[in-house]
């Protein structure tokens, strides 16, 4: 495939990415709001949290009288009596007075379940947000290096033009020309791959943000770096780390449910009232009023289930203790991960400074090599090597800033553990 076809492919891929769909302006600061409002996983956990919140207030509702009512008509024939058809009804009301503290424990369990769901919702939000931030900075990085390749390609074309002049002047051979032509082919191939990576990355971002799959994004052209960034100096309370809070909420839930089951022996005390209309088949009175029973009383109830509740309660107590142990271990690991992330940020910050200096030195090296090439001191491989070396320096500098931005996003996700 000749250079013209390669150029055409590269241009078509690039144009499809830029003009196939209207570009949507997107900044890193926009991602959190878009994830909250557009991402369906986040929306789903929000609905689940609302559902859990609806179950709160159990203790107060347990003292609201409960009731049951039914009415019917029955056709029957009893002994020697003729076939009869009579109405029936039953009205029952019950008021809870005491259940051995089980209602209070159930309310404690439900509050813990709400905390657990809050943490899970936050986990989903932060996971989706981190992935969006990671992809965003990768997209900006791809755009930056695509621009670097474009500049390098122009530089290669200038070098090729100079080589042709030297060949025409008898100062060089066709090998010089071939060096730059081969380099041009490789540069265009790399640009085509980068262009495809940009399309793939934008598609993944669009999916996370709940947008059309082929949405294109207008972003900044290079990954920025704040030399005075204070993120590596941040601290956090690891008792508030998401996974720790989740395990502690589970601990409270299991503990409360276990206590409920182990209180199988405590009685229930209820006040009840009922009115029942029986028919002639059940109450052999010809007058319907004589078939009505009205009652008001207090009931003391005990339940024995063969100690099954006791054993199930012990099992939940064990799960509660296990959740506490997991919380303790997660806290240790989270602190280690947090300090490692801060250390990595500090290292990347230092490497960025070194990378910036290398870019400056690479520019000086390339300029001096081109000057010596023009005087005949250097040859085409020297110029090509200096050109590609400068490209590598710039790519490395962009990679460091990209890695810093992603590492910072990860640290931000950890810091967002606080409620």
Would you mind describing this structure in some detail?
By secondary structure, the chain is of the alpha+beta class. It has a single domain (3-62, 99-267, 302-415), classed as Outer membrane efflux proteins (OEP), CATH 1.20.1600.10. Helix content is 64%, strand content 12%. The protein is built from 9 helices and 6 strands; from the N terminus they run αβαααββααβαββαα. The strands form 2 sheets. It has a 4-stranded antiparallel β-sheet with strand order 2-3-5-6, with no helix packed on it. Strands 1-4 form a two-stranded parallel sheet. The radius of gyration is 38 Å and the shape is elongated. The protein starts with a helix and ends with a helix.
List the SSEs and their pairings:
Elements: H1 3-19, E1 23-25, H2 31-38, H3 40-54, H4 58-61, E2 66-76, E3 84-98, H5 102-168, H6 174-208, E4 216-218, H7 242-262, E5 268-277, E6 292-301, H8 308-374, H9 380-415
Parallel strand pairs: 1-4
Antiparallel strand pairs: 2-3, 3-5, 5-6
Helix pairs in contact: 1-6, 2-5, 3-5, 5-6, 5-7, 5-9, 7-8, 8-9
């Amino acid at each position: 495939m000749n250079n013209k076809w390669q150029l055409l492919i590269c241009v078509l891929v690039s144009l499809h990415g830029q003009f196939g769909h209207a570009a949507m302006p997107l900044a890193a600061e926009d991602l959190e709001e878009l994830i909250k409002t557009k991402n369906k996983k986040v929306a789903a956990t929000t609905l689940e949290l609302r559902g859990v919140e609806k179950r709160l207030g159990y203790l107060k509702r347990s003292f609201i009288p409960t009731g049951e009512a039914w009415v019917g008509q029955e056709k029957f024939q009893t002994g020697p009596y003729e076939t009869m058809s009579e109405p029936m009804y039953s009205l029952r009301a019950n008021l809870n007075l005491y259940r051995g503290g089980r209602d209070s424990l159930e309310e404690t369990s439900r509050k813990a379940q709400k905390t657990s769901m809050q943490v899970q919702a936050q986990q989903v939000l932060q996971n989706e947000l981190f992935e969006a931030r990671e992809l965003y900075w990768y997209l900006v990085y791809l755009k930056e290096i695509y621009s670097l390749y474009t500049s390098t390609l122009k530089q290669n074309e200038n070098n090729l033009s100079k080589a042709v002049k030297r060949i025409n002047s008898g100062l060089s051979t066709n090998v010089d020309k071939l060096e730059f032509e081969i380099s041009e082919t490789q540069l265009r191939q790399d640009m085509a791959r980068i262009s495809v990576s940009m399309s793939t990355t934008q598609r993944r971002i669009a999916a996370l943000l709940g947008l059309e799959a082929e949405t294109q994004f207008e972003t900044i052209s290079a990954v920025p770096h704040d030399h005075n960034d204070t993120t590596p100096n941040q601290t956090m309370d690891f008792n508030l780390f998401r996974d720790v809070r989740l395990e502690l909420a589970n601990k409270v839930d299991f503990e409360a449910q276990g206590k409920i089951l182990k209180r199988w022996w405590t009685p229930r005390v209820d006040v009840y009232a009922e009115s029942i209309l029986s028919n002639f088949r059940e109450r052999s009175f010809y007058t319907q009023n004589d078939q009505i029973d009205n009652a008001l009383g207090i009931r003391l109830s005990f339940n024995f289930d063969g100690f099954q509740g006791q054993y199930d309660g012990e099992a939940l107590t064990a799960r509660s203790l296990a959740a506490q142990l997991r919380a303790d271990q997660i806290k240790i690991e989270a602190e280690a991960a947090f300090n490692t992330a801060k250390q990595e940020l500090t290292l990347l910050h230092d490497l960025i400074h070194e990378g910036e200096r290398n870019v400056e030195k690479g520019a000086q090296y390339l300029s001096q090599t081109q000057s010596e090439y023009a005087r005949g001191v250097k040859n085409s491989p020297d110029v090509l090597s200096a050109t590609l070396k400068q490209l590598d320096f710039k790519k490395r500098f962009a990679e460091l800033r990209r890695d810093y931005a992603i590492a910072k996003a990860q640290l931000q996700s950890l810091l967002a553990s606080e409620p």
